[in-house]
Amino acid sequence: MSSTQTVKERIEAVISPWAESKTKPPFTEEQLVTMALASNSKPMTKKEVFMFVVGSLRYFQQQALEAFYNEPEDGWNHFVSQQENFRTILNAVYSRYGLPLERLSGGMYNVSAPTSERLLQTLLDRGGDEKKKTKTFPFFKLPAELRNTIYESVFQYPKAGLMFRSIGRKRAPHVEVLPMSQVEADVGDEVTEAQPLLLAPFPEILSPLLVSHQFRQEAEAYFYIINSFRFVCLTDLDHFLTRVPEEHKQHIQHIDITFQRWESRYCPGLFLQLTKLGGLRKLDIRIDEGAWTQTVTRSTKKDQSVTNMPGLTTLGKIRGLEQVTFHGCPTLENLLKDDMLKPKPVKKGAGGGKKRKAADGGEAAATKKGGRTKKAKV
């Protein structure tokens, strides 16, 4: 295999032996979707992805013909259903962070060449000369402590945090992730400065997790543990928490959130979600108290005082924080801060966990950050 081959040429080499085969190709649906997107120089719709698969492989062409022959009035829908529904697959691949697709406006999808190469590595290697294949570096034979250090280096972003901003429909927003270099405390406005870091789309940030199942098992939690997450409105926080896997919500340690006056109806539900983040250790709350109390309409007269904020009692139930900072809202600071810094209540029968050192030979690698143990299975 020539080192100058493009990803598209390498994918063609993988597909070619199966192009005229009547046997089902040994590709997963996710691999077929990725090959379709990586083979095209432009983003594709779900239908275009589907047609690429049908047009490239005779097996799927035959399935399509049989579907139309058997059910001419509903052949397309029948075929899509029989092939495990590529539209559903595309949605599933995009539905949670950590998978390689980038969603664009107009219902278009894309995948970068480096990301597609990582996901299709096994298939692309088969398309070349086996004798020239580079041996895989025995990464998992490295000491657990060293692997943990590497994971932190891969997923550590600027100390000021990552800002999440949702754009588009609430059910399927496009999410921008911006590295924060400075945050103005009083008003809560964010300021980004020129940096050498160019932040990739969020799915691509986590694309190294596609290396292997073990890499993902060990490394995924680090992204949520070591970074600060900044939200300029409650709806952005809602989109974030909705899409982060439940097990990783418990790894989030630092959230910085700005409350907008017009979002008061979201407060109770999101405050309740914050109380359920077991690993949360630092919380920044930004409210322009003056603007909050001055913004009064006929329907919001009862909220003239910031102490009447919906869900305030729930917010005050957060416990176990090591640091809580109130920006622009001294009234809430005086009311809530002391209680939020109190330790979490200990459940009956809960034993105290011990910090374990990282070790080889099947032990769990563990380090501690912010008073919380984090583990990487070895």
Overview of the molecule:
- With 378 residues, the chain is an alpha/beta fold.
- It folds into 2 domains: 7-135, no CATH class; 140-344 and 352-377, no CATH class.
- It has helices at 7-15, 29-39, 46-56, 58-70, 75-82, 86-94, 113-119, 121-126, 144-155, 202-205, 213-226, 234-243, 246-249, 267-275, 289-294, 312-315, 330-340, and strands spanning 102-104, 108-110, 162-167, 174-179, 182-183, 190-191, 228-231, 254-258, 282-286, 323-327, 364-369, 372-377.
- The strands form 4 sheets. The protein has a 6-stranded mixed β-sheet with strand order 4-3-7-8-9-10, covered by helices on one side.
- It is elongated and about 75 Å long.
Number of domains: 2
The residue fraction in helices comes out at 25-40%
Unreliable stretches: 128-133, 170-174, 182-198, 352-378
The termini sit apart by 34 Å
